[in-house]
Amino acid sequence: MRKLLVALLVLTTVQAAAAQERRRSPDGGGLPSLQYSPGTPDLPLTGSWMGAMTRTGAGAFPVAVNIDFANGKYEGASSIAPGMMSQHANSRATGKTLRWEEESGMGVLVYTARMVTNDSIAGTVTLRDAKPNDPNATQGSFTLVRAKPPQGRSRNE
After folding, report:
1. Which CATH architecture has domain 2-146?
2. What is the pTM of this model?
């Protein structure tokens, strides 16, 4: 029952953030996108994920994340707007938790994502080497749900 409630909360948050972003976007776009990845059944963190993120100084905004496993390691990319993509670096998994880094104009952002259910992830983001009590230090959280395959494709393709 608890997993169902968490999944419903994640889905509601994602839908509200996506609707909010569409309203804010002056050009009618605004939703991030990455090429769909179905994931690998025996590696549950892999695949395409959509959700919402909040960070210091910003409201909720949509985010798309692809997580893949190749050459014995996790790889991936994140997008917070159309045409904007950040590659994951130094990805490592421990159980159902994945940690990765992304370069940003502020420095290195460190993400920690934990599977809540088979189709949802929750996590945090922090600015590496941020000074204590720095008002400009980025920190935040995100919730993701497994993306649906494009029309005409199944998750197993």
Report:
1. Beta Barrel (2.40)
2. 0.73
